[in-house]
Amino acid sequence: MDPRALLIESFEAAVAAADPARVLAALLPDHREIAGYRRTLVVGAGKAAASMAAALEAHWPAEASLEGLVVTRYGHGLDCRRIDVIEAGHPVPDSAGEEAARTILERCSQLGAADLLVVLVSGGASSLLALPVDAVAMADLKALTQALLASGAPIQDMNVVRKHLSMIQGGRLAQATRARVLALVISDVAGDDISAIGSGPCAPDPSTYQDALAVLRRYRVDPPASIAEHLRRGAAGAIGETPKPGDAFFARVDNRVIASAAASLAAAAQCFAAAGVRPVVLGDTITGEARDVAQVHAAIAAELDIRGECSFGPGFRRPLALISGGECTVTIGEGGGRGGRCCEFLLALAVAAPEQGLWAIAADTDGIDGSETNAGAVLTPDARQRARLKGVEAGRCLEAHDSYSFFESTGDLLVTGPTRTNVNDYRALLLP
Fold first, then answer.
1. Which of 3, 110, 147, 401 is the most exposed place for a label (fewest CB within 10 A)?
2. By three-state DSSP, how is residue 279 classified?
3. Could you tell me if 289 and 324 are in contact, meaning their C-beta atoms sit under 8 angstroms apart?
4. Max Cα distance, the chain (Å)
5. Integer Cα distance of 57 and 335 in angstroms
6. Same CATH topology for 21-131+166-207+242-259 and 262-431?
7. What digits encode the pLDDT tens for the residues 27-63?
8. What pLDDT was estimated at residue 130?
9. Backbone phi, then psi, for 45, in 5-degree steps?
């Protein structure tokens, strides 16, 4: 067994299970239903928006109406024949995304009851489909986004705030059209909550302005004055709430999850099983500070070493793969840092379990871990020793949130380029 090769193969299997080219066609309307619509408009946003649009085009009848516009992250675009693809800023929104979102909202509002609106949603749509309310300037929304990203707030809480600052998210896109709406969603959110994925442009929003203010207080985020005033007025009832469960127009809206972390973890588990390694899926909703999650994984590995098996039950012995998904957080503070949550998880694992001979991988299925160009990294049993020979100490790097430099020194960064899908982070510990 080559542990490194097996770990990378398992990650590739997880990504492949969320490839729009494989999963999207099965949930499209059949050709007879498509022919019944006067016009079909495709809109969307997210890291997978371009690949979803390409997959839809490939399976759409040539003679049927089809046009559209989707927006994706810079460097994630693809050439499509009938659907325009725009690139914009992520994770911090920019004017390109704002202009695309405004155009999308205008085109959706022009559709009638005889038309079909297909909305392609994937992780990243909250930033890429940013159209702030009139009272909030894009510069203020960008400042808030940067503050939330540094605060350690999970994506669900971030999106509660963003939905209440948007003209298009929190169900408002579906509200803006008279057409039949089919939303195809790739989930990057723990539990596949439709209202949280991409800030739910076509989903009922159970959260409130009061909830948004509570998020800012909880994570000690001081918003720009325009945002504070808008949320305050909303909480006081001076501004209408986002669309809620039970609103009548949702009767013509169909939200369908076409790919999820659970399905990707299952594909990775099959990869390990085929190699003779027993897979244990810890879950696809494991969240929290990356270094805290690493401590839990290290404790499980330690139990295996001490007792020969772990508390999951009889037969859970080496060789074993512990697999998990879900988006962790990294609270940076004022000192800054370099590297994403996947590399921080691995570095914390190396520090917490230096004697346990761990092999592990952690990578974001979208191909980008944090602000760098790597998807994640591979942890080897001798990583700390190899880094030390380069003058790099694991503990100091962890304290400085500089996991990127640690794995750069060992040559263990995992660089895939954009995968054009996104079902959140993938983690696997391999105990040979």
1. 110
2. strand
3. no
4. 68
5. 46
6. no
7. 999 999 999 999 999 999 999 999 999 999 999 999 9
8. 94
9. -160, 155
Using one digit for the tens of pLDDT, what is the confidence trace for 130-161? 999 999 999 999 999 999 998 989 889 999 99
CA atoms of 392 and 135, how far apart (whole Å): 48
Distance from the first to the final alpha carbon of the chain:
8
Judge contact between 222 and 145, C-beta under 8 A.
no
Question: What is the C-alpha separation between 350 and 383, in angstroms, rounded?
Answer: 8
Residues constituting the chain? 432
Sheet holding 376-379, edge to edge: 278-283, 320-325, 425-431, 359-364, 376-379, 413-414
Query: 79: which 2 tokens?
Result: 């050439």
- Dist. CA 219–CA 309, nearest whole Å: 39
Cβ atoms of residues 1 and 318 within 8 Å: no
Class of domain 21-131+166-207+242-259: alpha beta
Cα separation, 159 vs 145, whole angstroms: 10
Q: pLDDT band for position 370 (50/70/90)?
A: confident
| Cα–Cα nearest to 240, from 209, 267, 215, 217 | 209
CA–CA distance, 176 with 278 (Å, rounded to integer): 49
C-alpha dist (Å) from residue 124 to 84, 90, 250, 363 = 18, 7, 23, 16
Q: Report the predicted TM-score, pTM, of the whole model to 2 decimal places.
A: 0.89
Q: Assess if CATH 3.40.50.2300 describes domain 262-431.
A: no
For residue 1, what pLDDT is reported?
Answer: 81
DSSP of 157-187: HHHHHHHTTBSSTTTHHHHT--SEEEEEEE-
Sequence ranges of the domains in the chain: 21-131+166-207+242-259, 262-431
**At 333, is the pLDDT very low, low, confident or very high (cuts 50, 70, 90)?**
low
